[in-house]
Amino acid sequence: MIVTPATTGSVSGPPSSWDYVVDRGFRGAAQVSVWLLLLLLASILWAIGGKAMAGIRDYGLAFLTSTTWDVGRQQFGVLPQIWGTLYSSLLALAIGGFFGVAMAIFLTQDFLPPRLSHVFRTIVELLAAIPSVVYGLWGLFVVVPTMRPVAEFLFTYLGFIPFFGSTLSGPGLAPAALVLAIMVLPTVAAVSQDALRLVPYKVKEAAYGMGTTRWEAILKVMLPAASTGIFGALVLGFGRALGETMALAMLIGNSNQISLSLFSPANTLAALLALNFPEAGPREVQILMYAALVLLAITLIVNVLGSLIMARSARRAGAR
Amino acid sequence: MTRSVTTLVAAALAIVISGVPASAQDSVRLTGSGATFPFPLYSAWFKAFSGKAKTITVDYQGKGSGAGIQDFVNRTVDFAGSDAAMTDEQIAKVPGGVQLLPMTGGEIVISYNLPGNPKSLKLPRDVYPAIFLGKITKWSDPKLKAANPGVTLPDLDITVVRRADSSGTTFVFTSHLAAVSEEWSKGPGAGTTVNWPKSDKFVASPKNDGVTATIKQTPGAIGYVEFAFAKFGKLEMALIQNRAGQYAAPGGEGGQAALASVKLPADLRAWAPDPEGAKAYPIVSYTWMLFYRENKDPKKAAALRQMVEYCLNDGQKTSAAMGYIPLPETVVAAVRKAAASIQ
């Protein structure tokens, strides 16, 4: 809290009762916001869980391992969706993460004059402002036709590798993952940049002083020093990829099958939810709520795992 | 900042306050929600109707048939639109009774994307169910070649494009397939979403526009969309063999011939999964408006009847140009009679 010196007369004077009130009030407000946030989360979980209860009771864990989604015969299973969600998000994170971190290094490690790097930074952040549907359309009209001959080539000559086991007919996993990678890129790049900026300049100067080359300084000193933040960026990006809906619904093909091939159509939990809610009957709504709970659980597990790994690496770095 | 917010709130309040007495005294506001398929037509109708009948305004929200029925049962709207009418179970939830009125009809077309854009591909009755079952997988299949002499069919994989979201379109299309093919009715069956064959060559896109775009972008694709989307999206449409063995094109008299062949029962709820008649285009359906038989406000009931009358008279004249099927004369008469029960 900034309190103007005018109210207390002197900077070094004892806090007035007004200062106490403001201080306490601020603390109270902060506490209330935190509790409200927790309450909000709990109420969302309560609402979804309550509606999903009947579905959980009837389908149990078999819901997670069966592969059929047949509303007419009341058979529901989300294994293909779980597979597609994780597969597409991991691919997107691998591509988007690599380019995002590379971009962050390029923009923070004095490769560019500051003004130019600021322009680049803004451009990357602009990517985050493009609506999901536009990404979806771009994917459908640009990425898929561009990728089709490449997929054809890979299938013809390297078809024995399971990843290239089919041709790309239209929508499929590879274009979806590529577009998703571009969508997580701004998140990863922006947060990694902040992490790299937070490393004191002295550290790099010390590294140079010890006679490292630029690359050694970046790869062996700067990156490890910023690793916690960069890891956080990757977890955030992964979370974004897991929940992304519209672009994926348009690009992934929404086919309930499990295939290693990059060019096969697949499905994701978020797309399943978005596409089936509007016309769902009361029974289907329970099942969809169950699927939403599964998606929430996956996101939670990813975040917890991320924090655990970060905590562990921080401890190891401390011990060293 | 604060001042501008206050101004906004004040302005909003002023609008609300000034709006309420006006609509309560001399004008009637009707709200409806539901099916998206007839939405373009309905909004054109309601705009023209509101302009003509100065004291009545009609708002219709295209949310989807399922959501429309839900709103209707919860009594949050004055009427609803649905491609799947209403089930007996749903009707039982409305005290006072429901009047279903078919308002227009639509055709679902099988569109395709082939190199060289061959026009009017002919699809026999044993071929297209097999394509959507994943049994016929190449465009050069002998059965397709036999039905289309003179058309060069490439040795290309068939990519089936289907709806990813649950929809009335899928319901009508799969009902037709189930009526035509025993294998289909035993396999995927009919429904707003069905369990499609699992294959790398079956992809799904959201909504009619998504399917249209995917077909346009994928060489060798085949899929089903509503006629208007294929027409305005400039997709090629296949001729489909009807029950009488004739090949019928969408967008002509075939749709009305098909609807006319269906005998409407007293509750005006009927489907035509496989219509008879030599001219009939085989994949058609009505779409309905749902009304309460007992409206609390007699003024509203009168306005609703007036609206129905407009749709039956002036409305039917504009539907063909927008890609819908005008109701056959006999049906118009039946609907007009039934509309009297909206009280």
Write structural notes for this entry.
The complex is a heterodimer of chains A (320) and B (343). Chain A has 320 residues and is an all-alpha fold. Chain A is 74% helix and 1% strand. Chain A has helices spanning 5-8, 17-59, 62-65, 79-108, 114-127, 132-158, 173-198, 201-209, 214-225, 227-243, 246-251, 269-276, 282-319, and strands at 69-70, 75-76. The radius of gyration of chain A is 25 Å and the shape is globular. Chain B has 343 residues and is an alpha/beta fold. Helix content of chain B is 40%, strand content 20%. Chain B contains 13 helices and twelve strands. In chain B, a hairpin with a 5-residue loop joins strand 10 (239-241) and strand 11 (247-248). Chain B is elongated. The termini of chain B are far apart. Chains A and B meet through strand 1, helix 6 and helix 12 of A and helix 3, strand 7 and helix 9 of B.
Helix/strand layout:
The complex is a heterodimer of chains A (320) and B (343).
Chain A lengths: L4 H4 L8 H43 L2 H4 L3 E2 L4 E2 L2 H30 L5 H14 L4 H27 L14 H26 L2 H9 L4 H12 L1 H17 L2 H6 L17 H8 L5 H38 L1
Antiparallel strand pairs in A: 1-2
Chain B lengths: L1 H24 L2 E7 L4 H14 L3 E7 L2 H9 L5 E4 L5 H5 L5 E16 L8 E2 L4 H5 L9 H6 L11 E5 L4 H13 L1 H5 L15 E4 L1 H11 L3 E6 H6 L3 E2 L1 E3 L5 E2 L5 H7 L23 E9 L5 H22 L9 H11 L4
Parallel strand pairs in B: 1-2, 1-3, 5-10, 6-7, 6-8
Antiparallel strand pairs in B: 3-12, 4-8, 4-9, 4-12, 10-11
Helix pairs in contact in B: 2-12, 12-13
Strand content of chain A: under 5%
Q: What is Rg of chain B?
A: 22 Å
Which structural category do the helix and sheet elements of chain A fall into? mainly alpha
Largest interface: A-B, 38 and 38 residues
> How is the main sheet of chain B built?
9 strands, mixed
**What sort of overall outline of chain B do the alpha carbons produce when their principal axes are compared?**
elongated
- Radius of gyration of chain A, whole Å: 25 Å
Estimate percent helicity of chain B.
40-55%
- Average pLDDT value of chain B? 86
